[in-house]
Design goal:
By secondary structure, the chain is mainly α. The chain has one domain: Four Helix Bundle (Hemerythrin (Met), subunit A) (Up-down Bundle). 49% of the residues lie in helices and 0% in strands. It contains six helices and no strands. The longest helix has 18 residues. Bound molecules: zinc ion. The site of zinc ion has 8 residues, from α6.
Length: 120
């Protein structure tokens, strides 16, 4: 039995993914400035810290390349399809700690490691 993400969590990840997508596609100057704490503009963000996404990411770690864009897009597709949060390789739920750092992760940590070692 895999533990499903709640609708609220899915919504939260979807917002993170959209924000990330804006970052990697470069469509972002305003948001990026906010992330860096400069020039923060008033936004329609929710009072419970809706504009804090970027502070949880390390922008340096984020690769601004096409692979990342594709992975974010496919994560958004998986949210729509209802399969978001499960490892594509083994079907196990991906740890929430991992999804928070990398909401576009396709694999659980174990499968990711295997993939990096060329075992998949
Ligand atoms: Zn896996």
């Amino acid at each position: 039995m895999s533990k499903k993400l709640s609708a609220k969590e899915l919504e939260d990840y979807e917002q993170r993914l959209r924000a990330l997508l804006a970052v990697v596609t470069g469509d972002i100057d305003k948001l990026e400035q906010e992330a860096l704490g400069e020039n923060a503009l008033p936004t329609e963000a929710s009072p419970d810290g809706g504009s804090d996404y970027f502070q949880e990411f390390s922008l340096q770690l984020l690769e601004r390349d096409e692979t990342t864009v594709r992975e974010i897009m496919s994560a958004l597709d998986r949210i729509k399809a209802g399969s978001y949060g499960s490892c594509e390789a083994c079907g196990d739920p991906i740890l929430k700690e991992r999804l928070k750092l990398m909401p576009h992760a396709r694999n659980c940590i174990e499968c990711q490691r295997k993939e990096e070692e060329g075992l998949l």
